[in-house]
Every structure is written in C-alpha cells, then in structure tokens.
Amino acid sequence: MAKKKVLKKALKHKGLKVKTLLSACLAGVNCVYDGSNKKHPVFLELLKNKKAVIFCPEMLGGLKAPHAPSEIEHSSGGQVLKGVGRVLSCDGKNVTEFFVKGAQKTLEIAKKQGIKKAIMKARSPSCGCGLIYDGTFSKQLIEGDGVATALLKAHGIEVISDEEYLKDIGYQATGNRATKNKKKTCSVIRGT
Ligand code: SF4
C-alpha cells in the first residue's frame, strides 16, 4: 500500500477517535535500554496529528537510557504486580521496583487524560502485549504482558502491540527498526 494511503488509514483507525497512549520509543524517543528508538512513520504521524500521548514506563520508573536490558523472570507483568514475579537485568540486578513504579505512573497519565486505548511496543518487559521474553535473555518468547501493559489492561484500557496495529492498517511491521546509537549495555548475559 502506498505510504500516504497507509498514513491516512492510520489516522482514521477506529480506535483512534480519542487520544491513544503510545510507547515513546515508537515515536522516536531514544528511551530503549540501549539508547536507541523504534520509530516508525505511522507513529510519528499519529504524534504529529495529536492523536497520541507518548510515555515510557521505564523512564517514568526512574531508569535512564542506556541501561542494562531486563526481562521478567519466567513470569509475566501480572505476576510482577501481584508481588510474585521479578524483573531482573541481564547482570542479575533486581529492577522490579522501577518497572512497577513506571507502570503506576503510566496508568496515572492514562487516567488523567481519560485514555482508553494504548499502542505498546511488542515484547518489552514493560510494554509487551501478549508475548514477552522469558527471562533467560536468549530471545525465547512466552505468553504474557509487560508490567505496564498488565496494569493498563487491569484498569480496562485496551492495549494493542505496535505490530498488531500496523498489521491492522496494512503496514508491514519490521522487527529491528531504528537502532542508531546502539550501545551494548550488559556484558554478562545470564545463561538459561
Ligand atoms: S518499549 Fe516501552 S519501556 Fe521500552 S523503551 Fe519503549 S516505551 Fe520505554
């Protein structure tokens, strides 16, 4: 589909009659753990047209990019919120509190702005929706949501991943978008 048509379709998407919460990295903010972003023209367009409010739960929780990559340890965001799951960085630090705080602040933003829908970056331990990494830092996926996604869903906010959204409007999602300034931030990757 021609780019212009897709962008037009993105703005008319049925879920976007009201403002949508959008993972900030999708709109070009360098907040991914390695200091990069995951920008995409469709999401830049949503922001430009004031259809989206950007947020980054990890930054809201107090983490600064770059930082060591983290994964939820053999569990999901819902379990982390219940206090029975942990988020660990690849060098073994327990970073759960940053993720929980970031999720709570994200929910506050959504509530204040009356937001009912969110487009979140796939597979992230904060923003992942439906599938997340399994905690072994070996690119293995398991079913589950990131911590912020789980909290938003628990409060009735509809969450869709960036990949699902792009597919929905007929745009091919790519796994490795925009990786400028990429830095290796953890030299000790835990084994399985
Ligand atoms: S996926 Fe979510 S937590 Fe990670 S950088 Fe993007 S907005 Fe921040």
Explain this structure:
The protein is of the alpha/beta class and 192 residues long. It has one domain. It has helices at residues 3-12, 41-48, 57-60, 77-81, 96-112, 147-154, 162-168; strands at 20-23, 52-55, 70-72, 87-89, 117-120, 131-133, 141-143, 158-161. The strands form 3 sheets. Strands 2-1-5-8 form a 4-stranded parallel β-sheet, sandwiched between helices. It is globular. The structure holds iron/sulfur cluster. Iron/sulfur cluster is lined by residues 23-25, 31-32, 56-58, 121, 124, 126-127.
Tell me the distance between the termini.
42 Å
Shape: globular
Order of helices and strands: HEHEHEHEHEEEHEH
Number of helices: 7
Descriptive terms for the model:
single chain, 192 residues, alpha/beta, 4-stranded parallel β-sheet, two-stranded antiparallel sheet, 7 helices, 8 strands, binds iron/sulfur cluster
Task: Write a concise synopsis of the structure shown.
By secondary structure, this protein is of the alpha/beta class. It has one domain (3-168). It has helices at 3-12, 41-48, 57-60, 77-81, 96-112, 147-154, 162-168; strands spanning 20-23, 52-55, 70-72, 87-89, 117-120, 131-133, 141-143, 158-161.
Question: What are the SSEs and their pairings?
Answer:
Layout: H1 3-12, E1 20-23, H2 41-48, E2 52-55, H3 57-60, E3 70-72, H4 77-81, E4 87-89, H5 96-112, E5 117-120, E6 131-133, E7 141-143, H6 147-154, E8 158-161, H7 162-168
Parallel strand pairs: 1-2, 1-5, 5-8
Antiparallel strand pairs: 3-4, 6-7
Helix pairs in contact: 1-2, 5-6
Bound molecules: iron/sulfur cluster.
